[in-house]
Amino acid sequence: MISHNTWTNNNAPLNLHDNILQQGVMVVDDSSMHRFSAHSCLSAFGISHLYEAADGKMALDQLAQLQPIPAVMLLDLEMPVMDGIEVLQQLAQLSCKPAVVLVSSSDEVLISAVATMAEALGIQLLGAFRKPVSQAELVDALNSYHVDVACPDQIHAPVVTDVEQLKIALDRAKIQVHYQPKIDLESMRIAGVEALARWKNPQGDWIPPSVFIPLAEEQDLIGALTLSVLDQVLQDMNSWWEKERYIPVAINLSAKSLAEFNLANEIIQRVIRKGIPAHFITFEITESALVVDLPSALATISRLRLRGFGVSIDDFGTGFSSLQQLSRFPFSELKIDRAFIRSAPARQYIRNILRSAIEMGQGLGITTVAEGVETEAELHLLKSLGCKQAQGFLLARPMPERELMSWVEQDLQRNHTICQTRLG
Ligand code: C2E
Ligand code: MG
Ligand code: MG
Questions:
Q1: Number of compact structural domains in the chain
Q2: pLDDT band (50, 70, 90) for residue 31
Q3: Cβ(230)–Cβ(252) under 8 Å?
Q4: Which end of the chain is less enclosed by CB atoms within 10 A, N or C?
Q5: What local confidence, expressed as pLDDT, does residue 6 receive?
Q6: Relative to the alpha carbon of 337, which ligand is closest?
Q7: In a shared domain, residues 33 and 131
């Protein structure tokens, strides 16, 4: 039942996007009581363009008449004539559509399933809540509104990729390594970096790893690629050591590499030759890689751990049996996939899963790292849940080695200032 209590009171900072103020919000709910309380709450936020509809069909009819359309739709799921699920399906067909906040009395598992559906349909989902919704939750949802832009990273889709070019690139060391900082959430200082491969082909296009890593795996070039990345990392680490910048590095290992009998030996030898202590290097392995060839994966990972390297389970939560992988392999780090980070602030159900993953990492005594942190709300939540480290565009993007060094110096300056301020 919806009541005036649908919106519970709470003070939270409001930072509304201009589109919301100028285009307004539409409340779609069959309960007049709920529409009234939502209306009062939104008016109190300073939103004056408010529209109401008592069912999905009325909402879509109104949308067709409005120019511009409201920036956000608060959508109930259970409604007569046309329910919220159908509204979402219809919205997906529109070229210009509002962002959506789902508000429903259904159980959390159902709300979460519909939220996943909305995102899969390409709808900007600001939140999915079970009634009653707190004002703070609504504020967080509205604050997360953004104008959709194309790709946030600087990498563009490749024009062509061919294996001959990839072979040449490997021979000529044209696969470069960029570094993305990982931040310690307690001190907010750099905790390490992840090495990410980058390839600029002869046409000058940046080819993303999602294209050339599978190609390298297919063509048996992945071992060579891994070692080329390792060599660059070791060389960079050496130069950081000379400047007394002891930055730990994470390197990605692909499924196929794990099955290569000699890879662990080769890695160990190269690291020893460069004189870098093994515990400064962590290998990130995606969960899906672990099921390809279990005995080989276990052998490679165990040998690396035996020598003191860190081993991280990457994209945690996306594999078939995350818990089984955790129980089988001697991981030192758990890297939680971006899908959970992105959805957690607005979705209680996902937030519970995220909390459990962090608690599990704590229970196992291994470092928890959140991937793909893009918003302050995500960062705030991760800190409150006790996650150890975070990585993402909000904190720093992947960058070439030279930029990383300036970033690290700035980071030191920033934190030095913070310390001085605290002492003063
Ligand atoms: P990954 O290991 O999970 O790396 C994180 C990916 O997320 C990187 O994409 C990074 O640029 C991106 N990322 C970081 N912060 C954010 C954020 O806030 N939002 C979003 N949306 N994305 C963020 P990238 O560099 O394109 O790499 C994709 C994947 O390719 C990596 O995923 C990794 O599995 C693989 N890869 C990259 N370099 C190597 C390599 O040297 N060897 C192997 N085997 N795989 C690699
Ligand atoms: Mg990784
Ligand atoms: Mg990952």
A1: 2
A2: very high
A3: no
A4: C
A5: 46
A6: 3
A7: yes
